[in-house]
Design goal:
Helix 2 packs antiparallel against helix 3 (106-128) and helix 7 (288-318) packs across helix 11. Strand 4 and strand 5 form a beta hairpin. This protein folds into three domains: 9-197, Four Helix Bundle (Hemerythrin (Met), subunit A) (Up-down Bundle); 220-322, Signal transduction histidine kinase, dimerisation/phosphotransfer (DHp) domain (Helix Hairpins), CATH 1.10.287.130; 324-480, Histidine kinase-like ATPase, C-terminal domain (Heat Shock Protein 90). Helix content is 68%, strand content 8%. By secondary structure, it is of the alpha+beta class. The chain is rod-shaped.
Length: 481
């Protein structure tokens, strides 16, 4: 089953914005319509109630006018007065009809109908009898009942206004409550949409960030896959292509190091053998100056051979083909053996070694540990100035051996501390000699230390110089299991 994927991050953002805004717009439109409907109903209700009240007042005034006109007619007998009475009668009937058509309650409508009937009956009675008849005078007294009836209609209509106001207030509260419930229902939906689209947008960006970090840390994943919009998925494919190219380049680099190291090792072995023959005076005696030159050549070839062996060992470590032969190793004796190899350099530079060694044995690969010690000592000697001291302390610390190597050189630049163990990285601070390394000594040492389940770290010295601390389990592979 395939899900729809936007073509770009922009389309995903616009889609998310639209879906988030849609319920809000719906809620807003519904609120506007509800309030508008409520206002319209309120206006109509108030208008009807006011009209009913005005009509009721008009009825009372018309009844009073009719009564006044008919009484004057009975006294004076002037037909004009009766005509005025007839006109008031017609106006009252029209007013009553208008009231009946308004949105009034049945009780008011029945009272209006009763008023119309009684007034119409009274009008027909007064129309048939002479103005001075006693029967007419008796009939006029019925206007009192009509006035009371009109007053009842007015009272009921005023009550109708109050009831309409109460109904509007109730409808307003109901509408308000409905809008509140609607908002309470929409807010979780909007929040869910916001969270959902935030995840959809941030997840591929986070995947890209993680992929780039892994590429930078050289922890290359098997495959880089970015799930999300098509443009980010395409970017993920580009990163995966870059991963493949970096993997190929890494393999080419390892192969190059292996080939170059092997190519250099053969002529160097022959040159070193020839130098040793000259040094041993196999081909003839040497004078003192010639011996000094031969010693310098021999020492340089030893240094060059170590560099080549480091390159070979480093290529083996990168390919994860290194094997370890475990046996008891006396670290103190191994340190003294390594220092013996640096004897000439130490004498030439007048560097004193302050040794504090333990005789504790540990389980490890003696050759690999010798490479670690040789690189650490070489690094300390290379950075130490003439007539300085290198402190080497070896002590037991619980179930581990702790080795501290402290030189009096320029120290490690703070910006180099995170990269000093990276392959081929040369620090910013210059050495005290003309000898430049390959930049893989500390990297190879770290790999061998980690293979023994140990640690290496740069300690804060407080004074001038570098302080490297190595901790190795006494029985690393047993402790690891």
């Amino acid at each position: 089953m395939t899900f729809y994927r936007p073509k770009s991050v922009l389309s995903l953002v616009l889609t998310g914005f639209s879906l988030v805004a849609l319920p809000l717009i719906f809620s807003l439109v519904y609120a506007i319509i509800s309030v508008d409907r409520l206002l319209d109903q309120s206006q109509k209700a108030v208008f009807q109630a006011v009209q009913a009240t005005k009509g009721s007042i008009t009825l009372i005034e018309q009844i009073k006018s009719m009564e006044r006109n008919i009484r004057q007619f009975q006294v004076l007998g002037d037909k004009t007065l009766f005509q005025l009475y007839e006109k008031s009668h017609q106006d009252l009937q029209n007013t009553a009809a208008t009231l009946s058509r308004l949105s009034i309650e049945d009780k008011q409508r029945n009272l209006v109908a009763e008023l119309k009937t009684k007034e119409n009956r009274l009008y027909n009675t007064l129309k048939r009898i002479p103005h001075d008849a006693e029967k007419g005078k008796t009939a006029v007294s019925e206007f009192t009942a009509l006035s009371k009836l009109a007053q009842s209609i007015l009272t009921e209509n005023r009550g109708l206004v109050n009831r309409k106001i109460e109904q509007m207030e109730q409808r307003g509260e109901e509408t308000q409550q409905l809008l509140v419930w609607q908002a309470m229902g929409i807010i979780p939906i909007v929040l869910a949409l916001v969270v959902g689209f935030t995840v959809l947008i941030s997840r591929p960006i986070r995947q890209i960030d993680q992929a780039i970090r892994k590429l930078g840390d050289n922890t290359l994943p098997a495959e880089i896959t970015i799930s999300g919009p098509k443009d980010l998925a395409v970017l993920g494919k580009r990163l995966d292509w870059l991963r493949s190219r970096l993997t190929e380049l890494e393999e080419q680099k390892i192969q190059f190091l292996r080939h170059v190291s092997h190519e250099l090792k053969t002529p160097l072995t022959s040159s070193r053998a020839g130098t040793e023959l000259l040094k041993d005076e196999v081909v003839g005696q040497l004078n003192s100056e010639q011996k000094k030159v031969i010693d310098i050549l021999h020492q340089s070839m030893i240094q060059l051979q170590k560099m080549i062996e480091n390159l070979l060992n480093f290529s083996v470590v990168l390919e994860r083909h290194a094997t370890f032969t475990l046996k008891p190793v006396v670290m103190g004796a191994l340190i003294e053996k390594v220092l013996a190899d640096h004897h000439l350099t130490l004498m030439a530079r007048k560097i004193h070694i302050d040794l504090k060694l333990s005789t504790q044995r540990i389980s490890g690969d003696e050759d690999k540990l010798a490479v670690v010690l040789d690189n650490l000592v070489s690094n300390a000697v290379k950075f130490s100035p003439v007539n300085s001291t290198i402190t080497i302390k070896l002590m037991q610390e619980g179930h581990k051996m702790r080795l501290d190597i402290i030189d009096a050189g320029p120290g490690i630049d703070p910006e180099d501390k995170t990269r000093v163990f990276d392959p081929f990285y040369q620090g910013r601070r210059q050495t005290g000699t003309d000898i430049e390394g390959t930049g893989i000594g500390l990297s190879l040492a770290k790999e061998y230390i980690l293979a023994h389940h140990g640690t290496i770290e740069i300690m804060e010295n407080g004074t001038q110089g570098a302080h490297l601390c190595v901790r190795l389990p006494i029985n690393p592979f047993k402790d690891a299991s």
